[in-house]
Amino acid sequence: MDPxxxxxxxxxxxxxxxxxxxxLSQLLNPKKxxxxxxxxxxxxxxxxxxxxxxxxxxxxxxxxxxLFDVExxxxxxxxxxxxxxxxxxxxxxxxxxxxxxxxVLVVGLLYIYGRRALDWD
Amino acid sequence: xxKLFNTDxxxxxxxxLPMVLLAGLGMSLLLCSAxxxxxxxxxxxxVLLLAILGILxxxxxxxxxxxxxxxxxxxFDRFSYSLDLIVLxxxxxxxxxxxxxxxxxxxxSSEVYALFLFAVVGMMLxxxxxxLIVIFLGIEIMSLSSYILTGSRRGIIRSYEAAMKYFxxxxxxxxxLLYGIALAYGVTGSTSLASLQSLSLAADTSGNTVLLTMxxxxxxxxxxxxxxxxxxxxxxxxxxxxxxxxxxxxxxxGVKTAAFAALLRIVLALGHLPQIPWIPVLWIxxxxxxxxxxxxxxxxxxxxxxxxxxxxxHAGYLLVGVTAALQNNTxxxxxxxxxxxxxxxxxxxxxxxxxxxxxxxxxxxxVEELSDFSGLSQRxxxxxxxxxxxxxxxxxxxxxxxFAGKFYLFAGAVEAGFYGLTILAVLxxxxxVYYYFAPIIKMYFQxxxxxxxxxxxYPLLAAVFLCLFTVLYLGIFPSDLFLMARxxxxxxIF
Amino acid sequence: MQQLADKLIQHCxxxxxxxxxxxxxxxxxxxxxxxxxxxxxPFAGIxxxxxxxxxxxxxxxxGPNRVGPQGFLQWLADGVKSLLKEDxxxxxxDSFLFRLAPYLVFAGMFMxxxxxxxxxxxxxxxxxxxxxxxxxxxxxxxxxILMSGWASNNKFSLLGGMRSxxxxxxxxxxxxxxxxxxxxxxxxxxLQEIIKAQGAHPWNWFIFDNPFSFCSFFILFISSLAEGNRxxxxxxxxxxxxxxxxxxxxxxxxxxFFYFEEWANLYLIxxxxxxxxxxxxxxxxxxxxxxxxxxxxxxxxxxxxxxxxKAMSLVFVIIWIRWTLPRLRVxxxxxxxxxxxxxxxxxxxxxTATWIVLFPQGVPLVRYxxxxxxxxxxxxxxxxxxxxxxxxxxELQFNPxx
Lengths: 121, 494, 402
What we know:
Strand content of chain C: under 5%
Number of strands of chain C: 0
Shape of chain C: globular
Number of strands of chain A: 0
Radius of gyration of chain C: 22 Å
Largest sheet of chain A: none
Strand content of chain A: under 5%
Largest sheet of chain C: none
Structural class of chain A: mainly alpha
Oligomer: heterotrimer
Order of helices and strands of chain C: HHHHHHHHHHHHHHH
Radius of gyration of chain A: 26 Å
Number of domains of chain C: 3
Helix content of chain C: over 70%
Helix content of chain A: 55-70%
Number of helices of chain A: 3
Distance between the termini of chain A: 53 Å
């Protein structure tokens, strides 16, 4: 049996269970209609709109994440075949290849570090 | 794994050394910019110039001795090395040009230099790519660097706007290119140029015609954007105007050369596919590009926009050469050699013209309206004379390199039997004379306007002088260079 | 799973009449629902009770002790209470996204359980990209959290969601690098293969394989804490400044889903750590042979117990950390990830690769030294604890159920 099929089955099952729980809760819980359901802001009427422009420093990790996570993902196939290469005597070769790749990556990391892109404030 | 055993890594490193060195230099510059608080543009420039001269010499030696070799992903032949030489010369001149610009407020010279180097590495990857994926990779490295360079004029809205436009449209074009590559892979089962070429030579019609046509169409859209061919040229004037002038020069010369290299390789590899109407498509593309580029240029009053449209028109002339090269079934050395020669000629005269524009500008603000050139001949005769020569060369007046280039290019087209296209191209050249003369008339026949001309720096003068000398010398004695260009394309491999 | 079903078919006459595919499907559904109903859900509940009790002990309190024996059924009471609460959707919220977010969070956590191995046979889906799959689906949680933060139209929620997203995605990189170290050593992404590549004895575990993998475990552990929004990295829901972070506006069942994710995630963190570094379900071959002789189910029970005990120890450490360490600031958090853990992670990857190239068979001496060193550290720690207890003459009640 395809393992991904079992994932699908379980996903459907989980969806049914959570949906059922929500349904049960909707059946049982009280519903107060007509009351003003404002967002919580320490008990006062909310001031202004939270959906304004957000500090750019939150986006910087996002951008750096894209860069580095993709690079790390590139490393996985290498890691999987690494032992095979070592066994067939090409360990040094594949190691050096990856050192070059990582070297380029580390230069990037050092650069963003040096330019203080990683400082939160 | 056996491929790894059979690969001569020493040879590969030796052949690809220029790329490796440039990338290494770029990365060291980045580290310098990160860890040395003081920026030292002069030292960096000196070191870089020496290094690039060395790499230029090394590439030239490689050009002389190289035996065509195609690895899995990279190929090394004279064609690629000759294009390398063109972009290296471009880089050299652009680095000289931007000496004033990088010392401006808020700019770090090392970062700008590093981006230029990375862009050139990308271009070299395009030249040496033996696989559509490598070519795409090269195009992306080159494009991303030039997006950032376009926006590197700190605090100037126009620069940011240009960078944003260039980035969004460029990414869109890259998507087209990638989709085209994916479709080509889907139809043929390979992305390597060699296998695509053998498929195309065998006139294999087994592939899905619709998908293949879509693939080629997408590839042409993507590449057409990069070379600024006409339906896809709209970004060019805005980006050329907003970018710092040295960067504009770099884009007009280097990026266009590399994009043409990619176009040539792909068109020549896929050119014999029976399903694709290559010749009519390229014919129309080139006719549109040069006509519209020239006609719109007539109305421009801004020197950088004028040069942008002129570069669109020149892309049209080059496309004439590409069409002719494809028509001459045996990869005709004369026609293709003409394209390579013209790429070199075009790069030099564009760099020279933009160099004069850089020299006119103050630190920070730029002088770009045509009216600012009034009476330049009285205030700075050398700059006026140089700009005149470059513009005349672009118009194709004899005794300049532009004339020689156009001659070889159009001769190839006539040889291939494209009389209509050649006549159109010549008519276009005549039209172009009109707008190329506009600044010349302003410089020589109008009274000077009262603004102070900034002092000229030596690197800038050296760059302009270098371009001027080459344009004139090779304009008068073009045959040696043309022989070299023919030599370059003799043993084209895929 | 298929093997388990085959075994069942062999031993059960009733199933032999059915087509095999149907049996597989049945086993799948039964086992999946068992896992969800009898393992994950109660586990998440019970662990919440455990945590509250442990926390109480550490704070010299008693903790919940009313519902059931020693308050053991507190989690059920809480669940039923939440079921009966009103499901409030703020009128200014983005209703659709607000309702959708808890499901995403829940799905991201629950889907990861699918490829967690419980014993050598009991694993719902033994994917050949197992660990990769876990990294991938747990990323779904970030989307859910960000979505809930944005949809609530509440400033605390938005801040919490943004902080959480920045934190989780940043710490995914060191986690990925630490996992890479394990993949390097095992040469496979499948969780079962990774466990099989280790031995049953502690010195054969990957954590003691070499000094670099030893450090990698701590990188992974710290990153997992941060990815699970656990203290000391719980700034997204820092109650003293952000009320309850991204889940401020949630109530009733939807709130439970968020907390369900949080508690179940504890086990997930521990299970991944145990699988990758502590030999998973491995039991010594001699014990195994003996168990097989007794009954064919016994080795599975032993394996499950091994895995569970190891995982629970890690869970306890996580709870312990929560009530020991103060919360980090945002800037400290990001600095820790980008300036320390990621460079360290790169060093570990390179170091492990070098180690494998130099010693393809491993170095037993290093394993023993690392193992006994760790053991010695633990011994010293307990010695100090006992020493201090004696020195301060603290009144220690050894009975945890007061």
